[in-house]
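Our consortium's second objective concerns turning raw sequence data into structural hypotheses that experimental partners can test. To show how far this objective has progressed, the report includes one record in full. It was chosen at random from the queue rather than selected for favorable results. The single chain below, 163 residues long, was entered without modification.
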Amino acid sequence: MGNIYSINGPQPPDEWLSMSNGTTSAFIDLMALAAGVLAGNDGERLLAVCIAEEDQSVRGIGTVGFELSELPWDKDRFEEQRSFMLRVTEAAASGLGSECLGYVPDLGFLKPCFDKFALMLEKMTSTLTLPKNAAQKQKTVIPSGADFHAVRSTGYISLASDA
């Protein structure tokens, strides 16, 4: 079994990003690390947390595919957030943060996955319809005044409050 990523709802299979479990693990590790390094505000941190939550070692093998529309997009800041996710994808494809991993990811093998993910992000519009379960992800709270440290190789995010 593998994992399928799509933009929103039923789409033709050629518009999906479908990855094996091993490829997904490396993809999510790299995306979570890059998002943790690049996140600069609470909206970006929330997106980073949602990506890190897709860790198969926590959620289960073959269970982490999602629709991009399920991410906690803020319709008023959609273009800024999409730009952030495109930067994250580019940084992940270059291996940003990969020195934290206990393995060396094959960036050449993963490149088509990052390219497809970026293409899917570019196709998204601010008028997208969020499915019901997106509201649950939007309830994730980033502590006020949090100092967002980094995503560890396990895909977890470390937050430390100023309080």
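The partners drew two points from this record. The chain is about 45% helix and 10% strand. Confidence is low (pLDDT under 50) at residues 129-163. Both points have been shared with the crystallography group to help prioritize constructs.
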